[in-house]
Design a protein that fits this description.
two-stranded antiparallel sheet, 59% helix, two-stranded antiparallel ribbon, mainly alpha
Amino acid sequence: MAGVSTAPRRIDAVTLLTAYVFLLTIIPSSLVVGSFGAAGAPAALFAVILLCWYVLARQHPGITQDRGPQPVRVAAIFFGCAIAAAYVAANRTTMPVLQQNGADRGLIVLSGWLGVLLLAADGIDRADRLEALLRRVVMCVTAMAALGIIEFFTGVDATKYVSIPGLTVHTQFTDLMNRGGLVRAIATAAQPLEFAAVLAMSLPLAIHQARFAPPPAADPPLAAGGPHRGSAADDCVTIRDLRARRNRHRALSNLAET
């Protein structure tokens, strides 16, 4: 159609962060890419990809990013440098294999944290895009909460029945537990405390979304004379047809009386 733009929507930081939130909240934490072990969760690996994308985007002048002073970016760089320094200091001596694997896993997790943090701090350039991301976070966490409610009332861990090609089940240190006769649900989180923390952090966002949600659009009032109102010429034609029909009716009535 002429005059309508058919250009596809550009993938921005909110789109990438939405994919990360989806992977983090929907896929059970016990499913990982086997060769990466505990650090092979799909969300964690995707977060590392976000860091690579962020670094490349910083070098591309056509990608919109905040390039001015940013305190969040400075804090993230200091935090990353501190962890890297600790990693270097730890590797100055020979470590057991288990500790070495834990240190390597920490670097992978750190890269994911920095990727999400820096992309959110420098890549979201409009308030409406931020609101869109918050709405999606609330929807994904709502799905987690619904799964937790089902687990609480049924006592069944539904995530055990989820199987995704390419992912293997990592050893779970926690399962559905009972305390005081109540089931401690975990949904897709790693443990009940993590699940509770996610719900507690997302509750203010959900309340804000419900409180300041835009009102539903009201239906436009119907035009006088019906749902469709034509032009003045159409109205004149209609009136003329009604008059002609009335005159024919009068003529037939007079003819019948005579």
